[in-house]
Specification:
Layout: H1 2-14, H2 16-36, H3 51-62, E1 72-78, H4 88-102, E2 107-111, E3 125-132, H5 141-156, E4 160-165, H6 177-193, H7 196-224, H8 228-258, H9 263-290, H10 298-329, H11 357-367, H12 369-384, E5 392-393, H13 405-417, E6 425-430, H14 437-449, E7 454-457, E8 461-462, E9 468-475, H15 482-502, E10 505-509, H16 511-545, H17 549-574, E11 590-591, H18 594-622, H19 627-655, H20 662-694, H21 703-708, H22 719-725, H23 730-736
Parallel strand pairs: 5-11
Antiparallel strand pairs: 1-3, 1-4, 2-3, 6-9, 6-10, 7-9, 8-9
């Protein structure tokens, strides 16, 4: 592989006009596609195989036109102090609002509070339920504006009016902090390279890669049902890895120049060595992201595949566009150790010959491996303690900031009707195979009334054919509580007895039941997913490092860092530590998707640092250095760049903490903390300590396995002879390869 990539790097350096033209054309094509594509439609949230999803599908069949997945809104009214919603003037205002709401073209139905008994016992609060024909993501802005205008008219009449439900779902915004993250990345690159031009290349290529990836996602959003969160997460990961991959190749290019090589040869060697590490690091990230498909949640699968595609583009850009840009830069890119004149180049170093910080740190670790290892493991173990209290769930209006109308509507309903009113359960009774459907409907209602934590059970509402009915159950506890989850399981446990007695099937659905099913499905999939991703990446790293213990150590180190990162997420978003600093207005359960998504992404990124740092060590070991000295050599050449890469990733991920989307905010924080732990504790401390203790055993590989494994030559050993050919027809060699 190193030989092939060496030729590719030289070709891109020499044919830079052609390479640059290709990438500009791809960016333009993706941009035109995004601009001309129809707007994204519904972002369906289906969970195949779950009971809640089966019930939704059944409702679509048995209640044509019901729009079971359509957007909903609850317009909540509160009377002025001393008044009641049953007062004549207030009644008139509400009925006028209901009439105004019914006039919308996308409105399926509006329930009058007085006809549907939607007035609290004390008469202070009432609500009107609005059902739309389309989902919240498909709802036109004009329909949302009409909803807000109707509420404002009622406010002008003297009532307190708030709107809950998913009808006002907004596109998430990342905020200005994302730009700050990129600015920090730029500063780190300038410090690392000592050159504005060299620092600009990773930023430029990363932005081009993300532009192609996100534009392609936008172009396909309508056809493939991709949500706005998909493009945000793809840009988050694509930007981080794009900068890092380019950083490693530019850094290696400058190191090759410092050894006296010609620029074209240096570009080829940079792509052949650092580029090999980029390919395998990118593969681990892609495996981790595509592996999310094993969870069998379509939305999560699409997010993973879209982000993986952006990572693949970042790898290709690093291997081709970076050497092309280096060709354009010529002598303006200085060898390693030299700075541009603008940043102090040409000055005599104050302490010539002094080892760099990476060398000094590695030498310290090699001298004190046991102490460093114990300190690192104990520190991460302490950070992981909050993870033992991890509670999973999906957000509802109760987790919204108190400044939003959705949260205020949630609080008003809780005040007037009880906390469980915000999370009603919909029980679907399928009596198609029953001889006495009406009896079955009545029995289901009676059985549910006898359960604990039940406040209200509405009479069954059958469909036109009379073979299916829906029953609404109001719990006594809030939607995200363990008590409500127990009630859902209790109803489902009763279904077997009901089926045997009446031949009717009972299914529990609704947003609360769907959230419970999603959390359970993600919990069940976590271990199989972890085994699949870690297993595939373990095999890949065996090929890269030609070792058993090094990949094993890499996987165990990852488990340490990801568990510690989950502990930090629990401490901030669930316990509320530093919540003000992170702008977390409401604490609560951690997003159900957070652990499995973070496992996938963090594993890929952790292997990035493992590959970039340890390949330098293996390269030194293969070329004859002692194991401990190879560790020091690897840090001498790689620590500065890995440190810069980690700081850049942390800055980029931290930029998404300013997002208005709770999931994006949480993922941005979790990934930033995970990179901090993995790069600076695991890879910079635990890894060299373990390798120092293992010595030559770290690179042990059974002879039979050594013969079977392909030799990918990540160290670039084959370039020693190929580079000397200086074949001017490198393009022909590339084609033959």
């Amino acid at each position: 592989m190193a030989t092939f990539l060496y030729k590719l790097g030289r070709l891109a350096f020499r044919r830079r006009h052609f390479v640059a033209l290709i990438w500009v054309a791809l960016l333009t094509l993706a941009g035109v596609g995004a601009a001309s594509a129809p707007p994204a439609g519904s972002t369906s949230f289906s969970i195949p195989g779950t009971e809640a999803q089966k019930a939704f599908d059944l409702l679509e069949q048995r209640y044509p036109g019901m729009s079971a997945d359509g957007a909903t809104a609850r317009v909540v009214f509160k009377a002025p102090d001393g008044g009641k919603m049953t007062d004549k003037a207030n009644k008139a205002t509400v009925r006028e609002t209901v009439k105004e709401l019914r006039s919308g073209s996308e409105v399926a139905s509006v329930a009058d509070p007085y006809a549907g008994h939607a007035v609290s016992k004390d008469g202070s609060v009432a609500y009107a339920s609005v059902k739309y024909k389309v989902s919240g993501m498909e709802l036109e802005d004009s329909a949302k504006d009409a909803l807000k205008d109707a509420a404002q008219d009622a406010r002008d009449a003297g009532l307190t009016v708030e709107i809950g439900g998913d009808a006002l779902t907004a596109t998430p915004e990342t905020g200005s902090s994302e730009v700050i993250g990129i600015a920090i990345a730029a500063v780190v690159l300038v410090i690392t390279f000592g050159s504005l031009l060299a620092a600009g290349f990773p930023l430029l290529t990363a932005i081009i890669g993300v532009g192609i990836g996100v534009s392609t996602i936008s172009a396909l959003a309508s056809a493939l049902d991709l949500g706005s969160t998909t493009s945000i997460l793809a840009s988050m990961i694509g930007l981080a890895v794009g900068i890092d991959y380019a950083l490693f190749i530019v850094s290696r290019y400058r190191a090759e120049l410092a050894e006296g090589r010609e620029r074209e040869d240096a570009a080829g060697r940079a792509v052949g060595t650092a580029g090999s590490a980029v390919v395998f690091a990118g593969l681990t990230v892609v495996i981790a992201l595509v592996g999310l498909s094993v969870v069998n949640i379509p939305m999560l699968t699409k997010m993973g595949v879209a982000a993986a595609g952006t990572v693949a583009v970042a790898v290709l850009i690093a291997l081709t566009l970076i050497p092309a840009l280096l060709g354009y830069a010529g002598r303006r890119i200085k060898p390693a150790g030299e700075k541009s004149r603008l940043l102090g180049g040409g000055r005599t170093p104050k302490k010539p010959g002094r080892p760099n910080l990476g060398t000094r740190w590695a030498s310290f670790v090699v001298r004190r491996p046991v102490a460093v290892l114990l300190l690192g493991v104990i520190g991460l173990g302490a950070a992981a303690i909050p993870a033992a209290s991890l509670e999973l769930g999906l957000p509802d209006d109760g987790s919204q900031p108190v400044s939003t109308t959705q949260r205020r509507a949630y609080d008003l309903l809780s005040e007037g009707f009880g906390p469980g009113f915000n999370g009603p359960l919909m029980v679907v009774v399928d009596a198609k195979d029953s001889d006495h459907p009406k009896t079955a409907f009545t029995k289901v209602g009676d059985e549910i009334k006898g359960l604990k934590d039940v406040v209200t059970v509405t009479p069954a509402t059958p469909n036109k054919t009379g073979d299916t009915a829906t029953i609404t159950v109001i719990p006594d506890s809030k939607p995200s509580s363990a008590t409500t989850e127990d009630l859902v399981h209790a109803i489902r446990d009763k279904s077997a007895d009901i089926t045997s007695a009446t031949d009717a099937k009972v299914l529990v659905t609704g947003s609360t039941a769907m959230n419970i099913d999603v959390s359970q499905k993600l919990n069940d999939a976590l271990l199989p997913y972890l085994a699949l991703v870690v297993g595939l990446a373990f095999l890949l790293l065996i090929v890269v490092f030609r070792s058993i213990l090094v990949p094993l150590k890499a996987a165990l180190g990852f488990l340490l860092s990801v568990t510690a990162a989950l502990g930090a997420v629990v401490a901030v978003f669930q316990w509320g530590w530093l919540s003000g600093l992170m702008n977390v207005e409401e604490t609560g359960p951690v997003m159900s998707m957070m652990p499995i998504f973070m496992v996938g992404v963090v594993f890929g990124l952790a292997m990035d640092y493992e590959v970039f740092l340890v390949t330098r060590m293996r390269e030194a070991f293969v070329h004859g250095e002692r194991p401990q000295q190879a560790v020091v050599t690897g840090f001498k050449h790689g620590a500065r760049v890995v440190t810069a890469a980690a700081v850049i990733m942390m800055a980029v991920f931290s930029g998404f903490i300013g997002s208005s989307e709770a999931m994006v905010k949480m993922i941005g924080f979790g990934l930033a903390v995970a990179v901090l732990f993995d790069a600076f504790v695991v890879r910079m401390a635990i890894v060299p300590a373990v390798l120092s203790l293992l010595g030559k055993r770290a690179w042990w590989l059974p002879k039979w396995l050594d013969r079977v494994l392909p030799n990918v030559d990540v160290e670039g050993d084959g370039l020693r002879t190929d580079a000397d050919r200086r074949d001017p027809d490198g393009e022909k060699e590339l084609v033959r390869a």
